[in-house]
Amino acid sequence: MSWFRALKETARSGLTVERRRLEPAVAARGALGLALVVGVSLALFGPAVAASSAFGAFQAAVATFQRSWRPRPTLALASGGSLAVSTFLGYVTGAHDALFLALLLCWTFLSGLAWAAGPTAGIIASSNVAIMLVTVTLPTSVATAAGHAVMIFAGGVVQAALVVLLPVRRWGAQRDALADALAAEADYARRLRHDPVAPFDPVPLMTARSAAAVTPRQARTRPAELHGARGLAERIRPVLASLADPAVGVPTEGAQRDRARELLGAAADVLDAAAHAIRHGEPVVLPPAALAALRTPDTGAILKGPPRRAASRLAALLGDVVETAEPRTETSTEAAGARSRPTLLRLAPLVLAAMRAELRPDSPILRHAVRVSAVTAAGYLLGTWLPFGHGYWAPMASVMVMRPDFSQTYARSVARFGGTLVGVALATAVVQSAHPGTYPSAVLAVVCAFCMYLLMRTGYAAAQTFVSAYVVFLLGMVGEGLTQTVRERVLLTLLGGLLAMLSYAVYPAWETPRLRGRLADWLAAVGAYAAVVTARYAHPAGPASPDVREALLKTREARVAWREAVERATHEPVRHRGLSHAAVEQAEHALAEFGRVAMLMEAHLPEHGAPPLPEAATLAESLRRSTERGAKEVRERREPHWDDLRETATAWSAEPPDHFLLHKGATLLLESLEELTTALTGSRRSG
């Protein structure tokens, strides 16, 4: 993709306003906390302290909107505490330019590394640096810096207390994640009725798994209906695929296919009913038609062999889903079985370890940390040198828009400039024409904050309009920045955005050259999954084998990492370097088909104690060797070969094993890998 087209696409993405469900109650709660903090601080301590505490309350409320499964009060306290520390250090060093610049470099570098702990930590850390740049310009002394820091933390405490005292749809995010997973299964079942090999996106199941991990305190209060249904949904998926697939399930036409379609439709209705019940905390209401279809006694007469076993298992799993989704009183045993999530104190060493792991030359996170620290320092120096005053608008814009990847950085730069242009123009016009006093400015700041909370998830440009206006009104409340014009603020914001965009062009971390590595990771993971599944036929341990489950989770993570890499690489102005867009699509299809065949084999795993199949051990070993060597060859840009697996499949063509799925599965797996070879070979020749 050319630079011109890349800039056009990212600009369009940044200025897009999405239609999302608004949450006015949550936005009103955040604005109420901000209003309480500002009002009390103004009455007791004056405008300067009120502005500091307002930034703390504002940022704490923003933290509660981030996509995280931790308790919202915890996020508010963590945001308020970290911002208090940042601002206190900024106050202490603010009078000494060299010392403050050194602090800014160090603090921004650490905020860049914080992305190793996830986007929530990265966003909070970046916001702390941005707000520190503003608050240290407020008139104060080192003697009162601690008091300002305490008030900033108090703003976080107020927001945390309001989340506890005024709960809005408690456990709503976790309910939505689990309901979305069940709804995705329902949609999958419906698509299988018309396309027996329809693909399935594992992201909803991965999101539900992430949401299911709770802290010890959460485990004591989690609703019982949030237990168990996620695991059942994951076990249902291979059964649905096995029932629909013509290779191991029912024929493409005839009475068996009609019966399979009827069962798939009934399963979709039941899963949708369970999703609705979990989302709203209501009893499950099952459609009578779906119940009748699942209880039809002639299923055993129509379906034979593996399809009959799949239909029987599907009915049992759906019954378990319905029972699990019913709201009921939670027992201590259920709470003890919850997936654990470390507390913030126990999380600290894990975050530090993740940050240390990124201190390597090829790390995109390290490159981001270097870029953002250098750009913020340069923006601060240029803003101070230019004759505009209040030069923090430039570094503040840079640190807020910069992300580890190209597309987000450029999209947010354009969105921030557009939002700032509108927000600053309107707010400055109000301040310079109406000259609102301290309290009217505070009211206008709270109104802007409410609008920002309300529209935060509709697009960065829309939210940034009100953030810019909020800063103008809050500084107007103190009497700061009243002489700065719209032109000066917009030019400084444009400068910060341009520095951010230029830094990525000069010191990039392109995803495109790493696509082969991501593909190799996926190949190795899905190959290990297929090998583990096949080995279970030689040593039966039941369908719920822990090693099979662990291998499946690694496969999903590798597949999602590949998809995210492809999405980022799509908008990069970089030549494909040996992996064209056509090769990406064909290789993805090949590995997805490979994983689907392995999933079908998992759906028919023998029960614990079933007679072993020694031939399966041979297939498992050939799969392991072939995919491990193939992954290495993909990374090294060589043509992958699958000799071990081909020898096994060829030997079985004369004397197939005593299990139809092993013989069929080996052939289908080899065909998928050969398609991968074709994709990579064609890409290398075209490149």
Q: How would you describe this structure to a colleague?
A:
It is a multi-pass membrane protein. Its main location: membrane. This protein has 687 residues and is mainly α. The protein has three domains: 286 residues, no CATH class; 140 residues, no CATH class; 175 residues, no CATH class. Helices cover 74% and strands 0% of the residues. The chain contains 29 helices and no strands. Helix 8 runs parallel beside helix 11 and helix 18 packs antiparallel against helix 23. The longest helix is centred in the middle third of the chain and has 29 residues. The two termini are 15 Å apart.
Number of helices: 29
Count the beta strands. 0
Supply the helix-strand structural class: mainly alpha
Globular, elongated, flat, extended or rod-shaped: what is the shape?
globular
Count of the separate structural domains: 3
Order of helices and strands: HHHHHHHHHHHHHHHHHHHHHHHHHHHHH
Distance between the termini: 15 Å
Share of helix, binned: over 70%
Oligomer: single chain
* Rounded average pLDDT: 85
Q: How much beta, percentage-wise?
A: under 5%
Instruction: Round the Cα radius of gyration to an integer and report it.
Output: 29 Å
Keywords: Membrane, Transmembrane, Transmembrane helix
Protein name: Putative membrane protein YccC
Subcellular location: Membrane
Membrane topology: Multi-pass membrane protein
